[in-house]
Structure formats: C-alpha cells, structure tokens
Amino acid sequence: MHRGYIKLWRCIEDNDFYFSEKFTKAQAWVDLILIANHKEKIIYVRGVEVLIKRGFVGYSEEGLAKRWGWSRDKVRRFKNSMEIRQQIRQHKSSTLSQIEILKYDLYQPSNTIDNTTDNTREKHQKNTNKNEKNEKEKGTANKKKYLEFVFLTEEEHQKLKEQFKYDLDDKIETLNNYIGSTGKRYKSHYHTILNWAKKDKETNKVIKLPTI
Predict the structure, then answer these.
(1) Where are the domains of the chain?
(2) Tens digit of pLDDT for each residue in 14-54?
(3) What CATH number is given for 10-111 in this structure?
(4) Cα–Cα distance between 207 and 193 in angstroms, integer?
(5) Measured between alpha carbons, how far is 212 from 209 in angstroms, rounded to an integer?
(6) What three-state secondary structure class fits 184?
(7) Chain centre to alpha carbon of residue 90
(8) C-alpha of 9 from chain center
(9) Which H/E stretch holds residue 163?
C-alpha cells in the first residue's frame, strides 16, 4: 500500500465529472471525508441550533442520497456497513443526524489546514489578498441574505405537494444544485420553495428557479 498524502482541494466537486454519474462506494467514502467539517461550526435546522464538530458530516440521508444519486435505503446500508468497519460512527438525533469520521486527523491533519507553506499556497494567498476587501464587503451583504441552509423535511415536502397539487421534486433538486454550485444559503428551504410557489400560482405559471 502506498503511504503519504496528496492534496485534494474541496473545489474538486465543481468539476463537471464529479456529479456526472452515480457514486461508487469508494467515491462516497472519499466524499464523506471531503464534506466533513474541518473545524467546528454552528448551523440552524428548523430554528434549532446544531453544533457540527470537526470531522463530522451534517448531511441527512436524503441529502446524501441526492448528492450521490442513490436511494435512501442504499445510503443507510452504506453507513451501517462503514460503521461496522469502524470507519464512521453515526450520531442520530431528531433534529439532524450526523456522521463522525473516525480517525479524521489521519485523513486531514490539523497542520495541513493552517500551516501549509508550499509555494502554491503562498502564491494563491497573495492573489487572494488583492481582492480581500471586496470579498469581505460581499460576504457581509450575503451573510444577511443567505443564512444556513435547512433541509426540507418529508412533512414539509408533503405539505407543499398537497397545497400546490403537483410534484416539486425536480424544483427541489434544482434548488439543491443551485445551492451547491453557488454556495448560497437560505434560512429555510421550505419557505423558499413556498414563496416561489405562491408567486407562480398567482400568475398561473410554473415555479421558476434561478438559472444555474
């Protein structure tokens, strides 16, 4: 077995090939490591504050299923299999179940986060600093507009279907893709869909989501 590390930038998922096909189990495992938090972060799920620790993944089964092109049953079987192999530990909650990557520091040592000193990193940082002021100003404005993303529950999904009498799955998937590709966040997935649906119902049009 080869030892050592390679650097895998999280922006690799922006590549056209990354989501072009259903994931293999190996891809899903790498993806879990990729989307795990590298530092603690607080998010809000249906108004409830949730702490996502370093090395933890705060995705629901539904979110992972859409991300990987799997069914929820397949995601559940995969997680159970990985837990038996002692590669992850599942932390179940009524608010948001989380996945802990065991031995996360083995895959992402702390010193690779803040103390990398290679020339590529230094050059990238210099270029980034040129636009730092503009990015901070944009970040402040966007922070108010796009808050933490809240997953759409099955109950909320059903309420939307009953109210508008047609399937919103493709619209919800488009919203998920839009959020994933732009990094924008909404305080409530449910109310975002609801507001779009109400506006389009008033004008007898189908829901129009942002162009990706």
Answers:
(1) 10-111, 143-212
(2) 888 999 999 999 999 999 999 999 999 998 888 889 999 99
(3) 1.10.10.10
(4) 9
(5) 9
(6) coil
(7) 17
(8) 15
(9) helix 154-164
